[in-house]
Write a sequence for this structure.
């Protein structure tokens, strides 16, 4: 599932809408996790966190 998310990010990171300011997220299939990332350039992304959906959202960003 993580490999599929990585492939989607590699192909088109702009496909994911911003969630908080410059941060974006991609949901993992079959698991209640999301990768939170930011675009550094057209060809670079920085994955900042992998968070469980049932955790307190106030913890992000920490």
């Amino acid at each position: 599932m993580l490999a599929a998310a990585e492939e989607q990010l590699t192909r088109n990171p702009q496909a994911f809408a911003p969630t908080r300011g410059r941060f974006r997220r991609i949901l993992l299939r079959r698991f209640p996790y999301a990768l939170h990332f930011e675009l550094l350039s057209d060809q670079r992304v920085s994955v900042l966190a992998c968070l469980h959906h049932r955790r307190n959202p106030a913890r992000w960003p920490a």
